[in-house]
Amino acid sequence: MPLRLTSLPSSCAALVLLFALTPSALCRPNELLPRAGKTIVAPIAFTPAQNWEGIDGSWNTFALRTGSPEQQVRVLISTASQQTWVVDPRGCPDDTPTNNTCAESRGTTFNLETSKTWKSQGLYDLWIESNLGLTGNAEYGFDTVGLGYPGEGGLALEGQIVGALAVKDFYFGHFGINPKPTNFTNFTDQSPSFMTTLRRKNLIPSVSWGYTAGVPYRFAKVLSSLTLGGYDSSRFVPNGVSFPFAPDNERDILVSIQSIITDISGGSTALLPIPTYAYVDSTVAEIWLPVDACVLFEKAFGLTWDPVSELYLVTEGQHNQLILSNANITFNVVPYTQQSGQSTKQDNVNIVLPYKAFDLTAKPPYQGINKSSRYFPLRRAANDTQYTLGRTFLQEAYLTVDWERQNFSISQCKWLEGAASLLVPIESANGTSSSGTMGGVATPSNTSSKVSVGAIAGIVIAVVAILVLTGLWAFFHFRRKAERERRIKLAEEEAAAKKPGETESSKGDEEQSNTLVFPKAELEANTPVRHEADDGTYYKPGGKGGVSGTSSSAALVESDSKEREIFEMPGDMPARQEADGRQLSEKDVIRAREERYNGVDPALTPISPNTNNSASDRSPVSPNDRSPTDTLNGSTLPSTLSSFGRRALVQPSDVIELNQMVSPIDSSEGSHTMMFSPLSPITPSDNSPDATRRRFSYEE
């Protein structure tokens, strides 16, 4: 089906509408997006590294650039921390310049002594996760932190809180996305977190994020996802349930676990005796539950608790059997505000984890083990402050947190291989694009929003596309119009060429009627040769009958195209002589016709000025009268020509026969000229007859 070019302007309008309706399609970090008549900043997608590593399982890590000059490290994501932690080289004392196995297994180390921008703040406790028995300290300071590897275009912020640690409890460093501030001296001198700085600089639309830990057991491994200032809607199934923050800011992302059910035995087995609260935290890998719940897990899956490592170690035989069972474990969670038994279906969220999500490997020095072993990431909690849903849970759950509105959501992950990211910004709660938050409290900022390079690029692409489509439409439109006009003109010319009754002769008559030259009415004769030289060209006489070999040239001069007027002599046909009434002969008819058209010689006789001849000497001669004749070279001549001094009229009945002709050019016999007497008037002679006489055809 041919393309309808007339629809291109509407296509341009559709293209503009498409750009307006899908702003996130071309979004990059720090772009501006239109929302309900105002502009907000686009969220930032922090792309993870390709590494899967860790001593408590296989986890997808993220790359950071720290210090000046930049040092690259790999870290995990912590939803509970507001700081950036890196591993100090003192955490790998056995490493040498040729053997850095320890540093590589910990995501490489950061040497703060080589950083020119490091500003030390001293040695402080790590604080977080102390309720789980994880303790230690770190050398804190301010330094530059950038997202991603060099060349990836990730943003970098100066003066960020960095802690360099060497303890074993936190084997990997982490990137904290909690917006709470850090106090080094007192509660009035607060240092903002990375998230708060992003918001104050108007680099994200709000203090919010979306995160899932990724899985190594689906497809060809699915990377984790972290969106700052929004969420990736392509990674989860929405449920419409909003979870409010808990009042304890150390455990604010709190949910109420209503039930845990497994189908390992072919039925439905409960694994949680009573509902309990749990804190969602990606800093740790395991799921911490009450001991009663852990006992139910042991019975359902045949697990054995190791009191030394305090882990549920799994043998190869158990692992194979559990893989064959392909069991699922379903966590039913609701907002913490719902009392036990009072929740509705609209408030319930089910997160289903396959057994493969619990199939992890522990490596030394994790929990003091000496060799690698498979383990089930379930930990016995001593009290309710330890109930935690760690990274194992976030493999199949997508967590979206809005710190400004003090709520979050938990959704089941959606698994579509090769699905493109679809980032959705979370608008600021105060509705302004230049505000920041600290610990969830909105604070003003003087940073003004600017149109980013990405937004300008999107506008340029849209304008170029519109111009290209408009140019194509104009080109084909005018081309088709010109072709249509050419065809109409050609058809008119063909129609004019096929008019009936029009011939070449009629065209010639038309042209001739526009001149003043009228054809002469006479008998047909040989057409004289005419040389048309209207362009002023020259010719050599040798080529036109001249002397061959001459180098001279002459311009052909042509006379006026108009013929001279014909002056008719007076008179008409001679008076008929009534004679015998015989029928006119052919010669008489010819004579009469030539006399009509060519006239007759006047009856004049030359008179000498010395004589007194009278007019009586000019007597007319009758056509039937015969004058005495003389002879010249055997030819009979009229008597009127025999006398030199007298001239008489030549009558049509007079016959002059010239047997011997002499050319007027060379006076030789046999000349081609037949129109002159033997003695031409060109070479006059005293004895020559009157050469002015005109000969008639009937006299031959």
What does this protein structure show overall?
This protein has 700 residues and is an alpha+beta fold. Among the domains are: 5-28 and 452-480; 44-212, Cathepsin D, subunit A, domain 1; 239-416, Acid Proteases (Cathepsin D, subunit A, domain 1), CATH 2.40.70.10; 620-700, no CATH class. The protein contains eight helices and 40 strands. Strand 4 and strand 5 (59-60) form a beta hairpin. Helix 1 (8-21) runs antiparallel to helix 6 (453-497). It is elongated. The protein starts with 7 loop residues before the first helix and ends in a 63-residue tail after the last strand.
List keywords for this structure.
Cathepsin D, subunit A, domain 1; eight-stranded mixed β-sheet; 700 residues; 40 strands; alpha+beta; seven-stranded antiparallel β-sheet
